[in-house]
Structure formats: C-alpha cells, structure tokens
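Justification of computing resources. Each target in the renewal requires a structure prediction run like the one illustrated here; the chain below, 89 residues long, is used simply to show the kind of job we budget for.
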Amino acid sequence: LQAVEGRTNAEIWLKAFLNERGRIIIQVSDNGPGIPAENVEKVFVPFFSTRKGGSGIGLSLSRQIMRLHRGTIRVYSDPDVQTTFSLNF
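Resulting structure tokens:
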C-alpha cells in the first residue's frame, strides 16, 4: 500500500502460477512510482531504505526467509509503470 500511496489510479496485482518446470511463482505488482535503476540491486541490502522512517530490514528479511525455504525473491521495476516482486518456490 505504501508503494501506491497518493496515486489516484493505484493498483496492486497478485498473481500465482506454476512455471514451465512446475515450480510455484507468486508475483506482487503495483503501478506506483517504482524503484530507480540505481536502487534495484540495493533493496535487499540490510538497512538500505529510501523511505522516511524505513528501517531497511523488511526486504532483507524476506529474502532470508525465501532462502531458508529454498526459494528466491526478485524485483523488476519500470519506474512510473510497474514494479513486480516475484517469489519463486
């Protein structure tokens, strides 16, 4: 919700499917302002945050949880168009 805050046409999509190898994929997308290219690789770094008051541990912790479950989490962002987090199990 924070990613689309202030957007008049805010949308969040949730998609779940099996990939070609039969693995579960869950994707969460939004049409918020996105993540600048220079920050995409940093979003999973502990304590990195561009949000005021943000601690920078949410996505880092999410990545650790996914790794413990033998999965991965990735982000794709096209600023001002769409950002997608993909959880691959």
